[in-house]
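Good morning C.,

I know you're traveling, so I'll keep this short. The sequence:
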Amino acid sequence: MASNQAQALFLELTMSYHVLVTHQPEERQKKVISEVLKETARISYLHDLSGPGKQKVLTETDVVLGLSLSPREIQPKEIQQMEKLRFIQVIFAGADNIPFGHIPEGISVAANPGAFAEPIAEHVLAMSLALAKSLVENHLLLARGRFEQQKLNKALKNRICGVVGLGGNGKAVACLMKAVGMRVHAINRTGQSDLDIDFLGTVKELPFLLQNSDVLVLCVPLTRQTNNLITKQELRQMKQDAILINVARGDVINQRDLYQHLRDHPEFQAGIDTWWVEPGTHGSFSVEHPFFELPNLLGSPHNADDVQGAMTAATKRAAENVRRFLLEEKVSGKVDRKDYVF
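The tokens, ready to paste straight into the viewer:
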């Protein structure tokens, strides 16, 4: 009897929590959110609300769950109306689009690092192989009737893959590149990791990583420290025929410097999945330089993580973190706003 009473009291207390979902998830993602949180909190969807009912929910919200909290999801004034807000959880891995300037400092914020790590690692491998084997270039030559068989392909086995950042994405990249026979060198903030790799250092070892990597993969979040991390100075330290892959954020690389380096060093190659101006954040896609006239560039439309089931799995992962927060358990992915306020 006492146990039943305690359980009833627990449910009564937890169900007083209110979680507001700010984006419009698909039905299967709604189902996951419900399954994870149904015994822990009431759930509302911002886009289903209007008028006084919307205002009531905003003032009762304890936790926000959204993609990135961009203005397309929720307006800053709506965030400021959340008098009880204590925790924000985003489903995307990065936190650079969160409007920290409109969020009171006492509110905890968590991203979802590593939520899309496996498909991103596969994309890195695909880009690396496509560039090393000149697949796109040779296909286009064949389409024009040119059978250029003389140019040698590059092998990845026994070459060095440098990984900048060893969060969830970086770890998955390191493991997959090691599996295909590459030696893996990496750097992160602490110089510590549980990964079995060939070299691990801190940001101080970035020059060493640049000089030795045959394939360099950027897996860092966009923060004050990583903004413009790769400029002409860093590019000049890389091997003449290196491959640079960016699955981080566009602004980790200086756009002008990358274009000029690719233009002036035709043996150097780059695979870019994340761009400086994208529809999701800017409303359209554009580049300031004619990258797509260069044969040594391979681009994809920021879809490295876009595979079947990935968003549902990431949503579940984020909802589970919300549940841990509400149950006063340890949460993962908490971010320091000082890293993101430029």
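Safe travels,
E.
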